[in-house]
Amino acid sequence: MKISFPRMGYSYIAFKWLVENIGHECIVPPEPSERTLDLGVRYSPEFACIPYKILTGTYLEVADMGAEVVLTSGGIGPCRAGYYWIMHQQMLDELGIDLKIIAFEPPLNNISDFWQKLKLVWKSGGLSYREFIRVMKVAWEKLKAIDDLEQLSFKVRPYEIHRGETSRTLWKGLDFLDEANSIPEIKEARSEGLKLLNSMPQDKTRDPLKVGIIGEIYVVLEPSANHYIQIMLGEAGVEVDRSMYLSGYCGRREMHRPNEEIFAMARPYLNEAPIGGHGTNSIGETVLYAKNGFDGVIQLAPFACIPEIVAKSIIPRVSREQDIPVLTFFIDEQTGKAGVQTRIEAFVDLLEKRRERKRKEQGRLRAC
Ligand code: SF4
C-alpha cells in the first residue's frame, strides 16, 4: 500500500521509517505550505480550525502524490477533533478521490477497533507479530531521539553566535537519525546529534529570557503552522520551553508532566472536567511556568478552537495572580509571518524591561 499521514514537526522521519519497515511504500507528506493552506481553505468548512484546514490540504497533496491510505488519530472528549477524520473522508469521497483514512482512536476507548486497524496495517505489509513489535520499538526510539534533539536546539539557539547555525546543526542530527535502522544506530545518531549541538560556538555571557509555549497540540508541534515561532524566539535570544512533545503526548514521562499534576494546577481557575483539546493544560502549564520562574508564556491557539478560547478567557486572571505575562496568538489562514514577528519583538522587549525592573527592585530590597 502507499501510505501517508499528517505531518507534525519532525516526527515524519520516524513515521516514514515505520511505514517503510512494515512493508509499505511511504508517501512523505510535504511540509505544509501556502499551497497546502490554499487547498485546505478551498475544501474545508469556513468554521473549521486551522489544523483541520492544513490536514485537508495535506490529504489532497498526498493523494496527488499517489497515496492510497492515510493513517491518522481520532479523538474522544468534547473537542471536535474526533469528527474530523470522518469529515475528511466525506470530503475526499465527494471529490471522487480514492484515498482511505484509517483513524486510530485512543486504544483504551475501544481496544478491539484499535487492534483491528493495527492488524490491517501490519498484516498487509507481510510482517509477523514479532517483527511488527520490533519495528514499533525502533520507530518509538527514533521518535524519542527526534524530540531530544529538538528540545536541546531550543536551549542552544539563544546562545548561537552565527544566526541559523542551530537550525542547520539540528538538521544534520535529524539526517543521522533518518539513516539509523536499529536501536543501537539510533542511540549513536542521537548522541552524535546532541554532541554537534552542544559543541556549536556559543556566547555563554548572554542571559536569555525563558518563555514557555502552551496551546493546541498541532499548532504547537508543527513549525509551519505557527510561523516558526519557536525558532524566531530562539534567534531573538529567548530560551524556549515547549510544554508538549509528541513522544510525551504518547506517554513518555520525561517529556510530559502527568495530566493529573497539570490539572491540579489548573483547578483553582477551572474547576471543571477537561474542556477538550489542551485547554485545561494551557491553564495548568501557565501556573507551572510562573512557579518555575519563567519570564513569560506564549499561547498558540487556532482561531475558533473552543478549548483554547476557554483557556484564553481564564488566562488573564492566571497571569495577574501568578505574575507572569502571557501573549496569545490566535492562528488562522490570515495570520502572516511579519505580524507574528512584530508581536514577538514587542513581547520580548516588554519581558526584558520587566526583568530589569524586577532585578533592580530585588537589588534595592537586598540593600535595605
Ligand atoms: S483542539 Fe481546537 S484546534 Fe484542535 S481540533 Fe479541537 S477545536 Fe480544533
Number of helices, where a helix is a run of at least 4 consecutive DSSP H or I residues: 15
Low-confidence stretches: none
Mean pLDDT, to the nearest integer, reads 94
Sheet bearing the most strands, described?
Answer: 4 strands, parallel
Structural class: alpha/beta
What does this structure look like?
The N and C termini lie far apart (73 Å). This protein folds into three domains: 2-127, Rossmann fold (3-Layer(aba) Sandwich), CATH 3.40.50; 144-204; 208-367, Rossmann fold (3-Layer(aba) Sandwich), CATH 3.40.50. It is of the alpha/beta class and 368 residues long. The mean pLDDT is 94. The chain has 15 helices and eight strands. α1 links the parallel β1 and β2 (25-26). α2 packs across α3 (50-64) and α6 packs antiparallel against α7 (165-179). The structure holds iron/sulfur cluster (SF4).
List the helices and strands and how they pair.
Blueprint: E1 2-4, H1 12-22, E2 25-26, H2 34-43, H3 50-64, E3 69-73, H4 81-94, E4 100-104, H5 111-124, H6 129-156, H7 165-179, H8 183-198, E5 209-215, H9 217-221, H10 229-235, E6 238-242, H11 246-249, H12 259-266, H13 279-291, E7 296-302, H14 306-322, E8 326-331, H15 337-367
Parallel strand pairs: 1-2, 1-3, 3-4, 5-6, 5-7, 7-8
Helix pairs in contact: 1-6, 2-3, 3-4, 6-7, 6-8, 7-8, 12-13, 13-14
This protein binds iron/sulfur cluster.
